[in-house]
Amino acid sequence: MEQDQPESQSVIQSDRVKINGTVLPLEVTGDGKLRWMDEGQRCLTLEKEVLGFSVDGSRIKIKAVVEKGGGICCVGNGGHLVRKSFVFEPLSEDSLRLWCQKLRDYMDSLGRPKRLFIFMNPFGGKKSAPKIFFEDVKPFLEDADVQFTLLETKYQLHAKEIVRTLDLSKYDGIVCVSGDGILVEVSWPRFVVS
Hints:
Distance between the termini: 72 Å
Radius of gyration: 21 Å
Number of domains: 2
Structural class: alpha+beta
CATH class of the largest domain: Mainly Beta
Protein name: DAGKc domain-containing protein
GO molecular function, one term: lipid kinase activity
CATH superfamily of the largest domain: Pleckstrin-homology domain (PH domain)/Phosphotyrosine-binding domain (PTB)
Order of helices and strands: EEEEEEEHEHHEHEH
Number of helices: 5
Number of strands: 10
Shape: elongated
CATH topology of the largest domain: PH-domain like
Pfam families: DAGK_cat
Largest sheet: 7 strands, antiparallel
Strand order of the largest sheet: 4-3-2-1-7-6-5
InterPro entries: ATP-NAD_kinase_N, Diacylglycerol_kinase_cat_dom, Lipid_Phosphate_FormReg, NAD/diacylglycerol_kinase_sf
């Protein structure tokens, strides 16, 4: 007697696709796993590892963050995280559209921020804030297709002035790339009477 799979493990999308020139089965499950067989079982967890995806012609490029040295697999080795891409090619235009729709629907269901306002203090963090933002933060935001407005502060209390008049409804969050000074400036400024 066959048992039904729990909904969290049900297959949302399954098809044969080209991966590194070889046609292989690929599936995405209700619990957010993108699985394929390529020299063993491999998978990405959409919620924790996948930042986003893009389409280039007939190929889908999954942009992920995985453990260094661990490659793309469900079981990590406790290493440092690195950005990595995985590319697959659906075998038809209909399949391409369906994969894009299913991936987009699942990614959207995660409720991740799509628009951020970023304050960067060029002198914050021992003057390392610009390097941290441009080398570490910005690439992740781009991979995750997060739109952002970057404002470089010019003087002390500049962020506080800006956030008092900022239309917060346009953003899903505020990010501070700095030492702790800007964070103090933007914390609860509308509720503080000065």
